[in-house]
Design a protein that fits this description.
40% helix; 15 strands; three-stranded mixed β-sheet; alpha/beta; TIM Barrel; 489 residues
Length: 489
């Protein structure tokens, strides 16, 4: 309470006392005051949207059914030595056949939104050409089930499952031909499904699948390109996003909304001083210059081009105009701080600090625990790019989840993680940062890419032999948050 008063306030009160008014002040102060609950729940905005998220390749299975073509992850996961537990997602969660049960899991959480991805190889088995007539039938059924249960669908058009044919023919994202093929696919989906899908995410986590898939060879398609070629891949993906925005607007129903979902390079001020906060703003722009910034500003920053030098991507002014097509919202995938920064007198105005080896992390070593990211990332993004609608398109954590003899999963570490991240997110919304909704990753355990089924991110435990879904303790936690629209007792 006393922090609201300055020395000047106390001086003024002392002056009143010398004028003989202290007694009256004391009588007023002695009257009972309304009790303020300092521990009241930290509420989110009344129209805040709570949801969960998944992706097609990680849960659907049925990779050879109803005309679906192969994807780069089908081939990659079948390559010996690529997946930690030697598994594939050929069956995964069998969501293709169990979608009604899984929609029931969302309903039981009380969530009103579901972010899922559409498998490009189901719609265009060869990536281009004639669409597969049965390609969207599954999504028709899924959408009808979601809407019947009062759950709003948010569809992601690309969550890494590139048709293998495009990789074989064009080198995948190394070619602008793939960007054009993606636009055709996006337009077809929007034309067919925007009667029920109002919100489309174009591309998920460019920062992950470009660097890991085309740079380090860790993800599909397993390439290790030089930096110049890698920058061009990034540019081609940004072009694909821009072309998709245009085709969705042209072929989707009126009012259809579109934006990217990106694992932004999370740059946080190490100490919350004005200089360091400004440094974090600069770092947010520059360390995301290769994708998010060019989308949101329609240009590459001078610092990015200078740093890239001869490795800078080749592009035209018309391509930049397409890439910068206006979006309706920005999806931010937030897990761990990428860097902490402080102000610097040297260009570009910030210094990235080394992360100590002792920095706490979850069961995935890369997933450092930095709840403040849920506050700073959307705040900085809104400020740097003047964005007025943000969704947290992914946030969650892996945990070493084990069933107890009585069939329970007490994932207290996941609850700790979510409680702290959501508290920081509420802090952001309370300060007016325009976060409109939150999609928890993930609805249920699934095929976690190169880790196979070893890493579990779900609110529901999945036995991949029996396909039995079991609610974890974190499902009860999230259900309570959604029901009260708040964090705290």
């Amino acid at each position: 309470m006393f922090s609201r008063f300055s020395r000047r306030h106390f001086a003024k009160m002392a002056g009143l006392s010398t004028l003989g008014i202290a007694a009256a002040t004391a009588r007023t102060a002695s009257k009972p005051k309304p009790v303020t609950d300092r521990h009241a729940p930290a509420r989110f905005p009344d129209d805040f949207l709570w949801g969960t998220a998944t992706s097609a390749y990680q849960i659907e299975g049925a990779v050879n059914e109803d005309g679906r073509g192969p994807s780069i992850w089908d081939r990659f996961s079948h390559t010996p030595g690529k997946i930690a537990d030697h598994s594939t997602a050929d069956r995964a969660n069998d969501h293709y056949h169990r979608y009604k049960e899984d929609v029931g899991l969302i309903r039981d959480l009380g969530a009103k939104a579901y972010r899922f991805s559409i498998a490009w190889p189901r719609v265009f088995p060869e990536g281009t050409g004639a669409p597969n007539p049965r390609g969207l039938d599954f999504y028709d059924r899924l959408l009808d089930e979601l809407l019947a249960n009062g759950i709003e669908p948010f569809a992601t058009l690309y969550h890494w499952d590139l048709p293998q044919s495009l990789q074989d023919r064009f080198g995948g994202w190394q070619s602008a031909d793939t960007a054009k093929a993606f636009a055709d696919y996006a337009g077809h989906v929007a034309g067919r499904l925007s009667d029920r899908i109002r919100n489309f995410f174009t591309i998920n986590e460019t920062g992950r699948f470009v660097y890991f898939g085309y740079g380090s060879g860790i993800d599909a398609p397993g390439l290790q390109l030089p930096q110049g070629a890698l920058n061009q891949v990034h540019h081609n993906v940004a072009l694909a996003h821009g072309l998709a925005v245009q085709t969705i607007r042209a072929k989707g129903r009126a009012g259809t909304r579109v934006g990217p979902a990106e694992n932004i390079a999370a740059c946080l001020p190490a100490i919350d001083t004005p200089d360091n906060i400004r440094a974090a703003e600069i770092a947010t722009r520059e360390l995301n210059a290769g994708f998010l910034n060019v989308i949101l500003e329609g240009k590459y920053t001078e610092a990015f081009l200078a740093y890239a030098g001869k490795d800078a991507p080749k592009y035209t002014a018309e391509e930049l105009k397409i890439i910068g097509s206006p979006i309706d919202f920005l999806g931010l995938n937030i897990y761990a701080p990428q860097s902490y920064v402080v102000a610097s007198d040297r260009a570009p105005g910030f210094e990235v600090l080394p992360i100590p080896a002792s920095f706490p992390h979850m069961s995935s070593e890369w997933l450092r625990i930095g709840p403040e990211a849920a506050y700073w990332v959307p705040r900085l993004a809104a400020k740097v790019w003047n964005v007025d609608t943000i969704y947290i398109s992914e946030n969650g954590t892996s945990s070493i989840d084990q069933l107890t003899p009585d069939g329970k999963v007490y994932d207290l570490d996941r609850i700790m993680y979510l409680r702290n991240y959501l508290a920081q997110l509420q802090r952001a919304t309370a300060e007016g940062v325009p976060v409109r909704g939150y999609f928890l990753w993930s609805l249920m355990d699934n095929f976690e890419w190169i880790f196979g089924f070893e890493k579990r991110f779900g609110l529901y435990h999945v036995d991949f032999d029996t396909q039995v879904r079991t609610a974890k303790l974190s499902a009860s936690f999230y259900r309570d948050v959604v029901a009260r629209n708040a964090i705290g007792a």
